[in-house]
Amino acid sequence: MRARDKEILADLERFRCLSRDDIVAIHFARNKASVKACNVVMRRLRDRGEVELVTSSAPYVYAGKPSPLRKDSQKIPHYLAIAAVYREMLRIIKPRLFQVEPKYGKGMPEPDIFTIWNGRAFWIEVQRNMFSEKMWEEKWDRYLEMYRSDKWRGESWQPSGERKVFPFVWVLSATRVSTPDGLPFPILQSRSVDELFKPASA
């Protein structure tokens, strides 16, 4: 199997699903005929039984086989939104680490993304739908519990030495979210990645 094939399959596992345009942007950006090249590769992977279509709408959405998602799963737009964040970051600088829905245990935060990007660590909440104030209060309580637990200090990505870093909590949302006063960790809010971190050429 070719190296790029393996990278595509690894990303389908990481992101759960990707659209054809996601795959083009992540893996074929340097190809002159990028869409055509992507279509050829994805057809070959389908023929070999490595991937399957999750949705047949254009552009196609792919997943590894067997797919972790049903074809009518309400989570598909959610995972595509996470992939869109990754694509925005790639336009600026490739993340050193990008985890989708990392798990930290009962009572701990459930972010959509953990990433080390542009020299900083972030937990990212990708808000596609409006959440109630109560739901956000529960989210902040979980992040506060994580902060107080010191569990984050032992994460494998932490710098060596005594100085440990608590990630920024970054909310990506079309509408501003209410945040409690006095939280002991930094919160960022924006409608997009570019709104806070524009490419150098912009």
Note down, in words, how this protein is organized:
By secondary structure, the protein is α/β, with parallel strands linked by helices. The chain has two domains: 3-70, Arc Repressor Mutant, subunit A (Orthogonal Bundle); 79-196, Trna Endonuclease, Chain: A, domain 1, CATH 3.40.1350. Helix content is 36%, strand content 18%. The chain is built from six helices and eight strands. The strands form two sheets. The chain has a five-stranded mixed β-sheet with strand order 4-5-6-7-8. A hairpin with a 5-residue loop joins strand 2 (51-55) and strand 3 (61-64). Helix 2 packs across helix 3 (34-47). The longest helix is centred in the middle third of the chain and has 17 residues, at 76-92. It starts with a helix and ends in a 6-residue tail after the last helix.
- The protein's oligomeric status is single chain
**Percent of residues in helices:** 25-40%
Strand order of the largest sheet: 4-5-6-7-8
Number of domains: 2
| Shape assignment | globular
- Strands, count: 8
CATH names the topology of the largest domain as Trna Endonuclease, Chain: A, domain 1
Q: Give the CA-CA distance, first to last residue.
A: 38 Å
The string of secondary-structure elements, in order, is HEHHEEHEEEHEEH
What is the architecture of the largest domain at the second tier of CATH? 3-Layer(aba) Sandwich
Return Rg in Å. 18 Å
* Mean pLDDT over the full residue set: 92
